[in-house]
User: Fold this.
Amino acid sequence: MTDTALPRHDHPIAVDADDIDFMGHVNNANYLNWVQEAVLAHWQKIAPPQAVAEHLWVALKHEITYRKPAFLNDTVIASVVVEKVQGASAFYDTVIKRGEEVLAEVKSRWCCIDAETLRPARIAEEIAALFLPGKDER
Assistant:
């Protein structure tokens, strides 16, 4: 699903009792929270502190393919890769795994927001280059 040449950010996830639904596995809605946590952690890790302070992110679209359920106390990793940056949008691929097992694959589009005006903010080329080194991201 992801281009292995692009830098990947692995985000560990703890499966808690509150994540479990009436069927005994993680409720599907929690996967969206995990994707959000992983994408924001990726932004905070790579972007300069000033850019992190000046920008927020909101999800515009998620397309999720569920493969296998996750259970209480599973060790889960969400691996995120930025596929493309265009204007104020960043397009992410996220793969959620338990060991080598793929639990879910998520394609999502995120909008960069100016923290002061709360309006969409174009992602500066020098910032985009940090997420897509060596790739023509625009």
